[in-house]
Amino acid sequence: MRIPTFPTIIRTFYTLANTTSTATTRFFTQSSSNHLRNSTVPQYLNHRIAIFKSMPTIPFLGSLFSSTAASQDMAEYPMKKTPDEWQAVLNKEQFRIIREKGTEAPFTGAYDKHHPSAGVYECAACSAPLYKATHKFKSGCGWPAYFDSIPGAVTRHTDRTFGMERTEIVCSNCGGHLGHVFKGEGYPTPTDERHCVNSISLTFKDEEDGKESKV
Length: 215
Prior knowledge:
Layout: H1 6-34, H2 43-54, H3 59-64, H4 83-89, H5 92-99, E1 120-123, E2 129-132, E3 136-137, E4 145-146, E5 154-159, E6 166-171, E7 177-183, E8 193-197, E9 202-205
Antiparallel strand pairs: 1-2, 1-9, 3-4, 4-8, 5-6, 6-7, 7-8
Helix pairs in contact: 1-2
């Protein structure tokens, strides 16, 4: 178990407190004024719910409890490296998230509000193509969201951390942690799935020149 740093603890509890108070206040204020005229959950609350569903792996909590999917045999992936070899090619934060299955704080990632019309999102660890720009959609959850992936690019594992069952997604080439996928949230997408991916697990390349694009 890795002990989180003090700034990480503060950032995590600030996020939890802010998310809880904002969602609760806005929901009950609007509910009382509109007398619950609509039976559907407001869009802004949908976004908050999406955040909470992903919350167990934000930095502080994720540093206390690793994903149960972490025990997956890395030999099943084409690209194989030892932890030392990965640390040599990834920076500290990339290693924490991609290899140790951590999670970046919501609304902080470089690709959260990145919505190009064309291009490909690749694995930051091995450069394998993962998602097309056309797979991305605005979910408001605080992390990049995709309704589908390039066929065969993403592998799913069951994650039972915190006594709940979620689906972890990793790069099929190197086994690097991407995030989790959630189903049936009601987003108007072809698959009704949300691949909730850490920005730090990705790089983006323009389709035209094939060069990495800086954001």
